[in-house]
Amino acid sequence: MELTTQAGEKASILGLAGQQQIDVECISVAFEAGINYFFFYNLDSENFLVGLKSLLATKREQVLVTTGSEDRSIDRLRRYFDACRQQLNIDGVDVFFLEYVSPSDDINQVQIALDELRSWKEKGLVRYVGITTHNRAIALDMIEGFQCEVLMHRYNMAHRKVEEDVLPTAYRVSIPVVAFTCTRWGTLLKGHPNWQGKLPTAADCYRYVLQNPAIHLALTAPKTRQQLEANLTVLHTPLLSAQEVASWQEYGDLIYGTGQDAFDTQWI
What we know:
single chain, 268 residues, alpha/beta, TIM Barrel, eight-stranded parallel barrel, 10 helices, 40% helix, NAD(P)_OxRdtase_dom_sf, Oxidoreductase, NADP_OxRdtase_dom, AKR2_Oxidoreductase
């Protein structure tokens, strides 16, 4: 399955994610450069939402508007969804994610929440029902059971175990994967005492993620226009060579280390 805009255009391979420091102008810059996928976690990213609302006023059918919520309460989900539509002055969103499904979740609550999202889709308010998770077992259950139409999952040079099971399965059942934390919260950009080669840029991190055929797009969340423009080079650069992939995997192993970080042990 392909993620497409209302006008039928494929989702860009890079998606812009909202965060509080971003400049308003970055939204139009990103769109003009070829990004048509915009994601926000909540309504706190005011500049991002102002810029997105302005873009949607004339380009709604050419833009994928995507968001989600960690709430499992139906009332809170509805309130947030209504607030998003009101804030952006739109009737519905393209992808709505039930976010951070984890082993601590009550599976019945998750199913009830997913049923609510599906009801929004039936009403034409949502085009794709999505799930985000850091947990590989949950990701596999969700895509094998066709519980979602889009999966947003952590994937980067250091966190590569998804290459063994989640990504091949998603590819086989045609569920598109959106990759996030591609720079591993910035740690991939900082180097390692035992690494003597060049350090990856954020663009290198996105290129690594995008070389996997299961990944439909990578999320980027630059703070400045300069960072955005550097990341936009991904839209026009070739895929990594086999030698480059191997080199970045070696580097990723160093950054991952012994895997004692809480995100490595609790959210594998």
